[in-house]
Design brief:
The complex is a heterodimer of chains A (about 90) and B (about 170).
Chain A lengths: L2 H5 L3 H29 L3 H39 L12
Chain B lengths: L1 H35 L2 H7 L4 H40 L3 H11 L2 H27 L4 H34 L1
Helix pairs in contact in B: 1-3, 1-5, 1-6, 3-5, 5-6
Classes of the chains: A mainly alpha (about 90), B mainly alpha (about 170).
Chain lengths: ~90, ~170
């Protein structure tokens, strides 16, 4: 159904539809996980492809991960070391 | 402070969020394209399991690589943090080492590894699921890619809150 038509539905129907869709996704996701656990027995099929994927993902992402981590470390260091402004309340004399 | 921040929070979460964008989009787009061009159906018709051929290698590779990348990120953050402290704040290596050793606990590294393992599961399985169930042609592939990155990022932040609560209670 188009979005415009969905908006005309009552709130109860919308919530019910959203709940059903969520339950549908949860069920499918669970079945997919079970299928993956079953498929682990076929290690001759997935093991060589795993090495290819790990190489592609690991080397491909290394540079950007290290770059961002380096900046995060530098910023944390600067913020930790910089003198904090004094927010003390001066006692009344 | 730098060591604790990097190991406990910034290293695992930043790495996982970056990889959710990189790996999540890649997995969802690859699998979605295979679904809409009926390559997955062809595999099934040949009697091959698409789960063993396409999904398990991606998920296992992510589970292996993401914790390793997180450890590299932690190390890089700590080293760059020291260099920054030395360059701009005049901190000596002895002072830095003293501060780092005073607050370091070996359990923190396990904590970081466990966290990154949870994040790796989210970064790999959610985009694989979304890409595997893509529908409606090229438009569907784009929608799946966006949904995969958004869902994986939200899952990472939710898992971050959950694992922090669980692991710090255990600590």
């Amino acid at each position: 159904m188009a979005n415009g038509a969905a908006l005309t539905l009552g709130p109860v129907r919308l919530v019910a539809r959203w709940s059903l869709r969520s339950a549908d996704h949860a069920g499918r996701f669970t079945f997919l996980l079970i299928d993956m656990l079953r498929g682990l027995a076929e290690w001759r099929v997935w093991f060589p492809r795993t090495l290819e994927q790990a190489t592609a993902v690991g080397y491909g992402s290394l540079f950007i991960v290290l770059l961002v981590a380096g900046f995060a470390g530098a910023v944390t260091s600067l913020q930790t070391g910089s003198p904090a402004p004094c927010r003390c309340i001066t006692p009344a004399r | 402070v730098i060591n604790e921040s990097m190991i406990l929070e910034l290293g695992p979460v930043l790495t996982a969020l970056i990889l959710a964008g990189r790996i999540g989009a890649r997995y969802a787009a690859e699998l979605g394209t295979m679904r809409v061009t009926e390559q997955i159906d062809a595999l099934e018709s040949l009697g091959r399991s698409p789960v063993s051929h396409l999904l398990i290698p991606r998920v296992v590779a992510g589970l292996l690589v993401i914790p390793a990348l997180t450890m590299f990120a932690n190390a890089t953050g700590i080293v760059v943090g020291y260099l920054t402290a030395k360059g701009s704040l005049g901190l000596t290596y002895a002072d830095y080492e003293y501060g780092a050793r005073a607050f370091f606990q070996p359990l923190d590294l396990w904590y970081s590894l466990i966290k990154s393992g949870f994040f790796a599961a989210a970064v790999t399985t959610i985009p694989c699921y979304i890409g595997y169930n893509t529908q409606q042609g090229a438009e569907g592939v784009g929608r799946s890619t966006t949904a995969a990155v958004v869902s994986a990022s939200v899952a990472i932040l939710m898992l971050d809150a959950l694992t922090t609560k669980l692991l710090l209670t255990a600590k």
